[in-house]
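Here comes just one.
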Amino acid sequence: MASKNSVGLTVLVIEEQRAVRKIIEQIFNTIGFDFVELAEDGNEALSWLEEGGLKFDILVTDHHMDKMGGIEFSQKVRAAQGTYYQDLPIILLTSDSVEDLAEEAKTVGISNILQKPFSPMSMKQEIEKIIGFAL
């Protein structure tokens, strides 16, 4: 659902915990994203991407998920054919140390890492870094 302060962007959120998905959805709606799609794991998210009906501007994925974690998901996105998949910004959410993940995240093409718990403002700032303008 789009907010009245639309920024014209779409996001796919991959997070296995329903409550966390809903909180992140509320954050993106408040920021003004036009469309927020929620997936509970990397497999579901890959299905969304493969269908190709909606092009997302940003992917936000949790690091630790049972079926497919954020690192593996990001590798599969980057391995897909086409520049869309090569250039699609990916934010990795984690409760682990950002410093410990930085090298691996860079290697698989993750754009930014955001440590949990995070505030709506820190999520907004990460997005602004990626898209290159203020929301």
